[in-house]
Amino acid sequence: MNCRPFYLLAALALLGSCSGPVSNQQGYMPEQPIAFSHAIHAGHYEIDCQYCHVGAERSRHAGVPASSVCMNCHSRVKTDSPEIQKVAAAVQQGKPIEWVRVHRLPDHAFFSHANHVTAGLKCQTCHGPVEQMVRVEQVEPMTMGWCLECHRKTAAEQVSVAPSGAPRAGELLAVSMASPATEVEPAPAKPQRILSPPTDCSACHR
Ligand code: HEC
Ligand code: HEC
Ligand code: HEC
Ligand code: HEC
Ligand code: HEC
Hints:
Distance between the termini: 49 Å
Number of helices: 10
Bound molecules: heme C
């Protein structure tokens, strides 16, 4: 009998038992200390991502909310739930909840949320349909090749973007179809930010 599969399984088991930063893996979906569901909160109740992940627009890390944020609602909502009682106990004891990190880049790679989110990228572009997830899963590979593919594609698309101030396709159509008497006021053009995602090594390896 070939014993290779056995070694493979043993190696996988070892990997699985490691709680360190091996989590940089597509499909990684660790169990969490509290059964928090994005499908309930961000999906069913449509709570805005940035209500809880306040750092996303202005700092490197989107961050995970403090338990006190949970208690904004759960001091009244579902107080009879054992899961909620765990959250309440943590707040009372002043202990943070030890959420298991899902996405993590190696230390030698630099990534900041701020520039990506203010460039207009949706969370879901990189994290998948989180609002449908009962437990968060890493959907994208988050490898260097993945980062670079979007950077190159974005840079290439920017070249073909019309200069700001020029009418956009929809506005042009509206203007061309309006009779001179009922002149259409074109919507004020949004100041467009020229996106230039870096592809040089030092941008991501500082
Ligand atoms: C009510 C608060 C709340 C809302 C709203 C919320 N989240 Fe979260 N999010 C959390 C908590 C708590 C965790 C940590 C536990 C977990 O992973 O489920 C988390 C974890 C995550 C993670 C994984 C972080 C890691 O460890 O890598 C991602 C990605 C994420 N949220 C994205 C989103 C997106 C996208 C939305 C909106 C569609 C959203 N969240 C809405 C509270 C929230
Ligand atoms: C804006 C209000 C709001 C915030 C903030 C909020 N939740 Fe909730 N949560 C709800 C609502 C509403 C429900 C559904 C209650 C129901 O099923 O009746 C819920 C359900 C839950 C449940 C399922 C409870 C059960 O036993 O069915 C858990 C667990 C939970 N929330 C944890 C959290 C955690 C952890 C946080 C903080 C990271 C949080 N919630 C923040 C409103 C909120
Ligand atoms: C361009 C891709 C991209 C976009 C867009 C993005 N993220 Fe992330 N996110 C990442 C990467 C990569 C990591 C891992 C970062 C690390 O390890 O330093 C991450 C990590 C996280 C984490 C874990 C803790 C942290 O802050 O590092 C949370 C929570 C999170 N993202 C939430 C969000 C939310 C909410 C949005 C939208 C407002 C969002 N992300 C938009 C790529 C993205
Ligand atoms: C879906 C597209 C997309 C993905 C995926 C993506 N980026 Fe970007 N990135 C952008 C855009 C767009 C900008 C340009 C923002 C600007 O010009 O202001 C940018 C800018 C940057 C910058 C320069 C601004 C800053 O934050 O310092 C760095 C560094 C960067 N990205 C790193 C990464 C890394 C590392 C990854 C992978 C983990 C990644 N990006 C994945 C689209 C992406
Ligand atoms: C847009 C961001 C980005 C740019 C630009 C970039 N890298 Fe990376 N690089 C990453 C990320 C993220 C990782 C970690 C994930 C991985 O290993 O794929 C990484 C990993 C690496 C690794 C470790 C690979 C491994 O197997 O452990 C090396 C070496 C590396 N990069 C070299 C370079 C060199 C050389 C350049 C310039 C030609 C460069 N990188 C440009 C984001 C970037």
